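ok new one. same drill as before - structure tokens go in, u give me an amino acid for every spot. 332 of them this time. try not to just spam alanines like last time pls lmao
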């Protein structure tokens, strides 16, 4: 199936919901509350502290600029012994490998490799399609919780981490590192998300191009989205990013996007307002479920072809389910 078909399917999802549901007034108080309150952030941190183990090593060697108390290529050699080579004029005497010289009768110089530390970037989609939910919480809320899962891992591993928020505009944080990085990132991502006032949203494709320019080799990029605007151009950028960084995709979906519940008087609520259902026939349910199944399978296949691991989580899922699903071996 082509990328045009993928976009067509995304548009069909919006069409289905528009046809089946009519809008009513939004709750103006609720939409201006933070996505997660300070209390929510602290409670999530408490839960994550019992759940999240130390991060696994990144198999891609990081070439990022060094931060904190680490060796720098600009300030001389590093701390980790790598190998020895024959002594050359100008080598420091203190670097001579005396033991090897005693065995071979030739002077060798020790070479050291600087310690490398990867950086994590969390790209969180908070655009209009993410401000939707029918059960438990909105997709945008679950996306922030998922971001918290990864932010906590980075904090526990002492890794630098930053976040990009895709909403009306694109906003990003500086790089955080240390004991407060989780809380700082969560506060940034939890700003209120009232109904969008712009007609043209930023594209995932464009931001991934920026990531391709900005991210250092060996970094980790975790995209948390419903991937509504995925197309061939975006997939091509993802494929290119895979050669440079560790890339993971977390798909956040609502149950109604896969199967409409067979109940009367169904109401859907998102940050852009409430919607009231029309009567649905059995054929409507069957047709919708068949289309949705094909749509999500196509999405998985598209990402798989460019080497991107897809993790799926619904708005109802507890983060423990996410943790069990990824087994952390492929979490980031």
């Amino acid at each position: 199936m082509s990328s045009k078909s993928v976009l067509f399917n995304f548009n069909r999802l919006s069409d289905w919901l528009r046809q089946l549901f009519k809008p009513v007034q939004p709750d103006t108080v609720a939409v201006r509350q933070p996505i997660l309150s300070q209390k929510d952030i602290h409670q999530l941190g408490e839960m994550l502290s019992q759940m999240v183990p130390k991060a696994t090593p990144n198999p891609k060697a990081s070439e990022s600029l060094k931060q904190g108390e680490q060796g720098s290529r600009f300030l001389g050699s590093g701390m980790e012994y790598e190998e020895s080579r024959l002594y050359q004029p100008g080598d420091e005497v203190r670097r001579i490998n005396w033991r090897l010289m005693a065995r071979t009768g030739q002077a060798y110089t020790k070479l050291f490799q600087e310690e490398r530390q990867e950086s994590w970037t969390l790209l969180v989609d908070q655009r209009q399609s993410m401000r939707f939910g029918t059960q438990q919480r909105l997709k945008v809320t679950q996306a922030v919780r998922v971001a918290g899962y990864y932010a906590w891992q980075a904090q526990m591993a002492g890794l630098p981490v930053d976040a990009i928020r895709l909403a009306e505009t694109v906003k990003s944080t500086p790089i955080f590192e240390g004991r407060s990085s989780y809380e700082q990132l969560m506060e940034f991502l939890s700003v209120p998300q009232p109904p969008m006032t712009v007609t043209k949203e930023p594209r995932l494709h464009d931001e991934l191009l920026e990531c391709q320019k900005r991210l250092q080799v060996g970094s980790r990029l975790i995209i948390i989205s419903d991937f509504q605007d995925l197309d061939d151009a975006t997939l091509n950028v993802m494929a290119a990013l895979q050669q440079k960084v560790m890339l993971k995709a977390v798909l956040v979906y609502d149950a109604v996007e896969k199967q409409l519940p067979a109940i009367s008087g169904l109401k859907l609520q998102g940050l852009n307002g409430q919607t009231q259902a029309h009567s649905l026939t059995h054929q409507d349910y069957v047709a919708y479920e068949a289309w949705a199944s094909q749509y999500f399978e196509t999405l998985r296949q598209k990402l798989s072809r460019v080497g991107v691991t897809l993790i799926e989580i619904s708005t109802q899922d507890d983060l423990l389910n996410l943790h069990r699903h990824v087994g952390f071996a492929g979490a980031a």
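DSSP finds nine helices and twelve strands in the chain. and btw The domain at 3-62+117-326 is CATH 3.40.50.410 (Rossmann fold).
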